[in-house]
Amino acid sequence: VEFAALGGIFTFLRPAALVWATMNQSLSVEFAREKTFKRKKIFQSILLLIPFVVGIAWGILPWLINIVYQGKYNIIQPASLPIALMIGLLLSEIVSRSYIVGSAASKLLKQYGVWLIASAILFLGVEVVFLKAFGLFAVAWVGVFALLARNIIGYVYMMITKNRNEVDL
Asked: Rounded distance, CA 154 to CA 92, Å?
C-alpha cells in the first residue's frame, strides 16, 4: 500500500513538474539567445509566487487527495506539507537551472550535471531505505531535502556562472 501511495505523491507533483520543465526550456533558450534578456523581473516573479503556491497546495492537497483517491490512499494526506514544499522547491529551481543551462560554459554545465546525478543517486538510496524503515511520510520529507539539495547546487552554480559572465541578474 505504501509503495502505491508513493505513486500518489508523484501524481500530485506532475503538474508542478510540467510547469518546471516548460519554464526551464523556455527561459534557458532565452538566456542562450539573448544575453540582455530581462531575467531579474522574471526571477523575482517566480520567487515571489512560491509562498502562495506552497500555501494553496498545502491547503487543498488533503481535500484533493481524498477526492482523487476516494479514501484509498489517505495515507498520503499527512504528506501534504512536504508535497507542497516540493512543489515550491521545483518552482524555485527554475531560476537557477534555466540560467545555468542557458548561460554556463560547457565545462561548468557538465560539473553541474555531475553534482545533480550524484545527489539523485544518493537521495534515491536514502528514499529506498527510508521507505522500508520509516514509511511514506519520511520518504516525502527526504524528497524535500533532495530538492533543497538540488536548489543549493543550482544556486551555487548560478552564482559561479553569473560571476564568470559578469551579467546582472
From this structure: 10
C-alpha pair distances (Å), 52 with each of 27, 86, 152 = 22, 13, 21
Q: What whole-number distance in Å separates Cα of residue 52 and Cα of residue 78?
A: 20
Contact 161, 99 (CB under 8 A): yes
What are the 10-residue block averages of pLDDT along the chain, 169 residues in total?
A: 69 83 85 72 86 92 82 77 92 89 89 95 92 86 95 92 65
Q: How far apart are CA 16 and CA 84, in angstroms?
A: 10
Q: How far apart are the first and last CA of the chain?
A: 46
**What global pTM score does this model have?**
0.83
Alpha-carbon span 46 to 23, nearest angstrom: 10
Measured CA to CA, the distance from residue 45 to residue 89 in angstroms comes to 15
